[in-house]
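Project standup — Tuesday

K.O.: blocked on the structure for the chain from last sprint. Re-posting the sequence here as requested.
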Amino acid sequence: MKKIFILFIGLLSVNLSAQNEIDALRYSQQNIFGTAKFNAMGGSFGSLGGDFTTLSFNPAGIAFYQNSELSFTPSFSMVETNTSLNGNNFTNNKFGSNLSNFGFVFSGKNMDEEWKRINIGFGWNQLASYDNKFDIETLNSTSSFADILLNDAHGFFDDRTGEYNVSIDNLNSFGASPAFWADIIDLENDSVNPATGWYASDNGHYISHINPLSEKTQSDRVSSRGDMGEYVFSLGSSYQEKFYFGATIGIPTIQYSENKTYSESNFSDTTFGLSSFSYKEDLIAYGSGVNLKIGTIVRVGSKTKVGAAVHTPSYISIEEEYSTSATTNWDNGDEFSESSPYGYFSYEITTPWKIIGSFSTVLQNRFLINAEIERTDYSFTRMYSDYYSFSEENNQINDTYTEATNIRVGGEANLHPFKLRAGYALYGSPYKENPEYETENYSAGLGVDFGGTFFDMSYTLSKDSRDYAMYSPDTEPHSSINSEKHYLLFTLGFRY
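H.V.: unblocked you, prediction finished:
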């Protein structure tokens, strides 16, 4: 065991490809929050206008404002996540709070009889929440996370020697190296040369201290938090109060953190005397970008409107900070730990285009209904970097994801001064092989309008399911994850 000495490992420039199709989907998918009114109607607002969230959705909605307006929306959430793997079921709850929206719209009067006003808006809308926590545990006798680390240690094929090998000094600082110095893996010949105090053999031939075919308890604990938001700068106007136009420059921002802890214990094969080991990954990601949204709304008769919007891809620069650590516990009471150095990587991501069509009508001068359809193709998401080609990852994105159709329906009953709202949204699966992995939103809310002041509240239940690979997409075990996300939003607004 490597308790005889401690050596300094030189830090090398490691091409760590931790960024993959999962990251691409995370930063491409949206479940817009914004105002309570928007959420209460299921996010179905494409041909309605007059709500700040429309600046991130269909910018033509800004042209409906006839007065200047200030609004802000705090939100509260509870995420319940259920995992199931080989009869082991876990439930985790995570609570959070955030600012879902703040914004100001200035309504300017225009003397032109045809173009009666020009409206300008700026502010922020929350586009996605990353708060989550779950645990997975199972008995496994077919594979081990140590296999991943062992393959990382063997590295690349060396043409000079005709073998797969990496010397100790060249081990991946964020993968095999912590595993080696914590003794999860070892050199096949780990004897020490007394003359040098170094290993007698450093030929890159490694072994694992875990028999992958032995029964063992595997667990994975994951906790994440953060959000995607968007600063919006919008301009809109109306022609003859029949044609409405708007454009938004969006500045998306990302804050994301994730902590993963893999562990294995209770080995049926105790040949090496290893009692348990854990491997921890910590990630912090942040970034910003730019996009353009344009939209139009047209009145078709006195009570019916149709709307359309196009969102260009978001061009986002992302910076990541990461580290890993490994810990082993042995039958004789020994414990070894090793941490990686601090890591940093930057890359760019381009999200797919988005097209939205919507229809709304008023019934009996009291009931309002809006329905819309949205199309986006997640296979067009791309990742780039000056330091890494991402060709394999982009091919994986193309092979994994597909075009998704999102449908939203919302309604409002005007019972002056109260307004009752409800909505439903179905977000299609982005996966080619798993079309059943959809997201459903059920929402309801109440609004009170006093003219110069208004107050809205909403409740949204979001349900989704997905597959999760414990440590490798190509390796079992995989777990099913089902989430129920509860959101409570309150909007306070003032008109001038």
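K.O.: great, moving the ticket to review. The first helix runs from residue 21 to 26. The radius of gyration is 27 Å.
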